[in-house]
Amino acid sequence: MAKRSNNLVYLALVFVLLIVLCIPLLGKTYTNYIVIKISILALYGVAFNIMFGYCGLLSFGHAIFFSASAYALGVSLTKLNLPIFIALPAGLLTAVIFSIIVGFLSLRHKEIHFAMITLALSMLFWGIVMKWRTVTGGEDGITGITRSLSITSYYYVCFIIVLFCLFLIYKILFSDFGLLLEGIRENEIRVEFSGHSVIRLRMLAMIVSGFFTGVSGILWAFLDGAVTPTIAHWSFSAVPVIAALIGGPQSFIGPIVGTVIYVIAEDFITRFTLYWQIWLGIVVVLIVLFFRGGIVGTISKKISDLYYSKLKEKLS
Fold first, then answer.
1. pTM attached to this predicted model
2. What is the percentage of the chain residues whose pLDDT exceeds 70?
C-alpha cells in the first residue's frame, strides 16, 4: 500500500507539472504572470522553511535577503552598468553576506528573541532602503531592469530555475545535514552531545536559506522590471510564514501548497474589496484552527493513520 501511495504521489506531481507547462499555451499574459509569481514565492517559502520548519526558528528577516539580492542586481545593472553575468553573482553574493550578518547577530538566541531580532534587523534594513535615495531610489525604488525575454519565455526560464533550486533544497534537507537540522529542532542538547556545533549548523542553514531566498529575489526583480521598498518591509517576511502555516511547516511541499493558496486567495479577494488583508486573515486563521499541521501535514497524518489502521487489522 505504501508503494501504491508513493506511485499516486508521483503521478499527481507529473500531472501538476504537465498542467504548469501547458498554461502558457492559453495565451493569457496575466495568468502567466500569476503562475510565475507563485513559483517565485514558492521558492521563497521553501527557502524560508529551512529555518522555520527544519531548524525550528521563526524568522521575520527573510525580506532582507530577498530584497538585498534584488537591489544589488538593480544597482549593478542600472547604476553601475555591469553585464548581467556579473550582476547575477553580485545579487546572490549580497544575499549570502546579509544572511551571514543576520545569522551572526541573531543565531545565539532562540524562539521569540530570535524572531524579534530578525524583525528589528528587517525594519533597520527597510529604513536604510527608504533613506539611501542615491543608491536605492528611496520610495521610488529602482526601475529599468530589463529581462530581454517575453513573458512566455521568462515563464519557462523561471520554471526551470525554480524547479532546479527546489531539487537542490530537497537533496540538502533529506541529507545527513537535514537530519541534523531536524535534530536541533527536536532536541538541540542531544545534537550538541553528539559532537556537533548547533550554532555552526544553524549558520550554515541560514546561509543556504539566504542564498535560495536571494535567487527568488532576483527572479522577482526581472519579473517586475523594478525593485521597490515593498519587498524590503518586514511584512513581506510574513508572506512565507503564512504560506508555511497554511501548507504545513514540517513538510517539504507544505510551503509550496501554502503559496498557491495564498496567492490565488489574494488575487481573488482583491477583485472585490480593498480590505483584502482582513478576509485573507480570516481564511488563514480558519486553516490554522482546523488544520493544525497545515493542509499537507493534516492530510499526510490522515493517510498515515489510515494506512497503519489497515495494517493493524491485517496483522490481527
1. 0.90
2. 94
